[in-house]
Design goal:
heterodimer, A: 146 residues, alpha/beta, five-stranded parallel β-sheet, 5 helices, 5 strands, B: 529 residues, alpha+beta, five-stranded antiparallel β-sheet, five-stranded mixed β-sheet, 17% strand, elongated, disordered N terminus
Chain lengths: 146, 529
């Protein structure tokens, strides 16, 4: 577990998770991906709590792909906590959701999301969206050095 | 002015001898009456009471009246016909009473008349003192009689007037909704129009009104009473009275009552009970409160329903799309990795992929449709020509081999929501393009014209048209007149058009024939000048 985490995927829908992972794999962007299925796990993972109490939290993911509609703690709450803690505030977060609701989009940007992506129904578009955002955030984006 | 009907007449008890001397009196009066009357009139011209009254008559009228009076006197004295003259006397009494001439004022006038007459008596009877005395006796008998008749009627009428006034006063005083209290200089109650139910008459009459005030009001009332008697000033004040346990609220006014000499010996306090008003105010407040609660409840119910609908469309948006994406995605994976050139399998998988995509569009359209229902209109003046040109440009951006001619006729400006109207044009023009796709040469005409306060826009095409028999289904949600394999679509477009136009208080309609094209019309309000 000492390899640097590249991508943290927080997604409760296993089909969507599989498709996302597959798209990233195609572009070889999937070497160090952690997939968690709800908000509680995500927060435990990021802040070293609960089942992840032993984790080195300095090992931060380069990007978090975050679903909004999840059981227990939703994506917006996760985003809020990430942004309000100095240890995690600069991690790029991309919301990937089925929701086109204006209020979700506005709320996400208010909380400081880096991108908001509506998952398209069509596989071609979905594949394209995932792989492009992976390329951008993992290879092109320059995060601030802490 | 009311008049007293004189039903009775007074009849004198003159003896024969009396009549003889009355005749003496009459002859002299008749001789000098015009002269004395003129002199009297002239002298009284500036009299405060008689002057104005005399000016109401012309000299001719006065002369005629004199002559009539003399004629009546003559008939009475010479022919014993007293009735008419006595009636005239009574009428005079009534008139003086009604004109508010006092009896003494009138008596004064008679005395003056006598004084004017005396020199003539002295002159005519210079040779005979005996005759003079007889004459004077006749004069006094006649005046006594006249005074008696006038006095009789005068006081009867005065009494009647007083009684009528008293009745008017009682009617007003005792029937008033307000409380009226007469007080004397010492603030003692002389008269009240109504004794409150919790008091006896003896508790009220003769008692000081200050005793009925609450402690904090005593000074206010004292001041008002003082100023009404000392400064003769009316004033207005609010008071509260103790009635057992209850406090009653009054709005009061106090005014002086003048006696004949101009002094203020009494005052009247008129108090309006504000309790009823207060009660009514409370009732109105209570009604408002319950109304507000009701409105709040209803609003909450509505808000709940809207919330429910929102979460419903939210879950449609999210939950229905996810499985579709999975079906679509995994079918793709199957197709790419495992079909291995099996045409039948590839075909089946394409069907799945196409259908999931179609379902996705349906969901998106449905969401759009429900979102529109909630959207608020931002009304502005819309230049339809510019908007139509933009839409055409967007819809024909992708190059195609089709031969398309779009003619743009006169386009009037309208009032409406720019974004929503664009949606309308996109849907209708896109339809026109879609249903003409099988024509060799597509002809579309777009225009508008004014009709009363509205602008009617139309889009005419030479496409597939439709059967008017199914017109009823044209604008229904998910209703289609063509199969998806013939012309793709979800059946939401025209329903959306209708919803938007209806929200603009406009109408949508269409004409068409199978294979002969269709024309879609919609009306919108003209821009306000």
């Amino acid at each position: 577990m000492n390899d640097p985490i590249e991508i943290l995927l927080v997604e409760d829908n296993s089909s969507d998770a599989k498709l996302t992972i597959r798209a990233l794999k195609e572009k070889n962007l999937c070497n160090n991906l952690v997939h968690l299925t709800d908000g509680v796990q995500a927060l435990d993972f990021l802040f070293g709590r609960g089942t992840y109490a032993d984790r080195q939290i300095e090992n931060k993911p380069k990007i978090i792909l975050l679903d909004l509609n999840m059981p227990k703690v939703g994506g917006l709450e996760v985003l809020k906590e990430i942004r309000s803690d100095h240890k995690t505030q600069f991690i790029p977060v991309v919301v990937m959701t089925s929701s086109r609701e204006e209020r979700d989009i506005i709320e996400s940007y208010k909380l400081g999301v880096n991108s908001y992506i509506v998952k398209p129904v069509g596989f071609d578009n979905f594949f394209k969206a995932v792989s492009e955002l992976g390329l951008y955030w993992l290879l092109l984006n320059q995060p601030p050095k802490l | 002015m009311e008049t007293l009907s004189i039903e009775h007449s007074i009849s004198p008890n003159f003896t024969k001898k009396d009549i003889e001397i009355l005749k003496m009196y009459f002859e002299l009066s008749k001789k000098y009456n015009p002269v004395i009357s003129e002199a009297l009139t002239a002298d009284l011209a500036d009299h405060p009471l008689w002057g104005p009254l005399m000016k109401q008559q012309t000299p001719e009228q006065r002369k005629a009246q004199n002559e009539r009076s003399l004629a009546m006197q003559h008939a009475a004295i010479y022919e014993g016909k007293w009735e008419e003259y006595s009636k005239d006397l009574l009428a005079q009494g009534v008139m003086y009473a009604q004109m508010n001439i006092s009896y003494s004022d009138w008596y004064e006038l008679i005395k003056m008349y006598k004084d004017y007459l005396l020199p003539y008596i002295k002159k005519d009877f210079a040779d005979s003192a005996e005759k003079a005395i007889l004459y004077l006796e006749g004069l006094s008998k006649f005046i006594d009689f006249a005074m008696y008749g006038i006095a009789e009627a005068y006081f009867a009428e005065k009494n009647r007037l007083i009684q009528a006034n008293e009745e008017r006063f009682r009617a007003i005083f005792y029937n008033s909704m307000d409380h009226m209290t007469l007080i004397d200089r010492n603030a003692r109650i002389i008269l009240v129009n109504r004794i409150p139910s919790h008091y006896n008459k003896a508790d009220v009459i003769g008692k000081s009104i200050l005793g009925f005030q609450t402690a904090e009001n005593v000074e206010t009332v004292k001041k008002a009473v003082h100023s009404v008697f000392e400064q003769k000033e009316s004033s207005v004040f609010d008071t509260a009275h103790l009635a057992g346990e209850n406090k009653l609220y009054y709005s009061s006014s106090i005014s002086p009552i003048y006696s004949e000499n101009g002094e203020v010996n009494a005052a009247v306090i008129i108090s309006r009970d504000l309790s009823l008003q207060k009660e009514a105010e409370e009732e109105v407040k209570e009604l408002n409160r319950s109304l507000e609660i009701k409105v709040e409840e209803r609003t909450k119910e509505l808000r709940d329903v809207v919330k429910e609908l929102e979460s419903f469309s939210y879950s449609i948006s999210h939950d229905l799309r996810s499985p579709l994406r999975a079906i679509n995605g995994f079918t793709h994976i199957l197709k790419d990795s495992y079909a291995d050139g099996n045409e039948e399998a590839l075909d089946a998988m394409d069907e799945i992929i196409n259908n999931t995509q179609r379902m996705g569009h349906l969901i998106d359209d449905l969401l759009e449709f429900s979102r529109l229902g909630r959207a608020e209109l931002k009304k502005v003046t819309v230049d339809m020509r510019v908007l139509v040109e933009t839409v055409i440009q967007e819809l024909t951006r992708v190059p195609s081999e089709r031969k398309i001619d779009i003619t743009l006729q006169q386009m009037e400006k309208v009032t409406g929501d720019q974004n929503l109207l664009k949606q309308v044009l996109v849907n209708i023009i896109d339809n026109a393009l879609k249903y003409t796709s099988k024509k060799e040469h597509t002809l579309i005409e777009i225009g508008s014209y004014a009709d009363g306060g509205n602008i009617i826009c139309y889009v005419k095409d030479n496409g597939a048209g439709f059967d008017m028999a199914y017109y009823g289904k044209l604008f229904g949600v998910f209703q289609r007149l063509h199969s998806a394999s013939e012309y793709e679509g979800t059946g939401v477009g025209l329903a959306l058009v209708q919803k938007i136009i209806t929200k603009h208080s406009g109408k949508v309609w269409a004409e068409g024939r199978v294979g002969m094209g269709a024309t879609f019309y919609f009306s919108l309000p003209k821009p306000r000048k």
